Each structure stands twice: as C-alpha cells, then as structure tokens.
Fold this protein.
Amino acid sequence: MTKSNEFELDNEKKQIIANDLGLPLSNITDVERMYAKIKRGMKEQYLAHLIRTLENQLKEITENKFFQIVVQPVPAEDENLEVSCAEYVEKCYFVIYYPENMHGRQLRVQLAHELGHLFLIECFNAIKDNEHYDEKSNTEPLSTLFGLLAIMDKNDYYIKKNIKIFYILHGKLSKKTLHY
Ligand SMILES: [Zn+2]
C-alpha cells in the first residue's frame, strides 16, 4: 500500500468499517454518497472555524443572538469589485463580498483581513478603554496583522491536527489493512 492512498476509503476498508459498525455495506456507500453532496459546498466555506468562532463571540459582545457574518461571492464580471470589501451594519451583521473567481489562497488572506476590521471595531474596542476604532479609523495595518495571525494559527492547527489524525487512522486501520 502506497502513502498516496492511505486515506482513501477503498472497498476493503469499507467492508471493515461495515463489519465494525454492524452495518450492511450498502449503508456505508449510501452515507458516503450523501456526504459527497455536502462536501461540494465545503469548498465555499473558507475560514469557517474562524468565522464561526468570531460570530459566536460577537453574539455575546453585541448582545444580539442573531448576529451574523456572511461571506458573499459576487459575479466575476462585476468590475467594481477586484478585491474583497465588507459592509457592516453595527451590532447586526457583517458581510464580506469577493469576486467569485478569486483564487482560494488569496481569498483566505482577504477574508482574514476583512474579519480583522470587524475584530478591531467590536472585540478590540471591548477590551481597550483608551482607543476607539470605527469605520473612519485607519485600521488597515492592524487588520492585516490580524489576518496574518489568523492564517498562521490556522496553518499551525492543521499541521498538528493532520499528524494526529494520521496516527488515529493509521493505528485503527493498520492492524487489519496496512501491511508494512
Ligand atoms: Zn481593509
């Protein structure tokens, strides 16, 4: 077995999972097919953990349990939008617009930067008494700093997490399917 297919769910592994869970093989393939549909939408969910966490914290800070962060792609032919931009309705919602053809890597950086603006206006203001940031403040450098920290933290998280997942999967499946 080569390294490239260690994580692939081939028929042999599906049968092992089916046996372990006491389910017919058809259940495994049905759930796999349903999951593939959900997975298609995941491509759009960049920085989902960061957005979700920030959104939850802002629900508390703004005392609005319906506070929402929305990420909205805009048709690529709209020439008014070459990079991302954000709209904030205070204490209600924050919308980030981006051209739909933006490359994933650039999009992550842009989203993290835009979230930095929101962080400064709401979260940073909540902990800093002597400074006050609003839409008119020059929050560009600090938003970029926030974005950098968020992306670096995320990369770090996934590097550690992948190693852990590798050992869990490897430990669980190696006894039965991997032959070294
Ligand atoms: Zn900005």
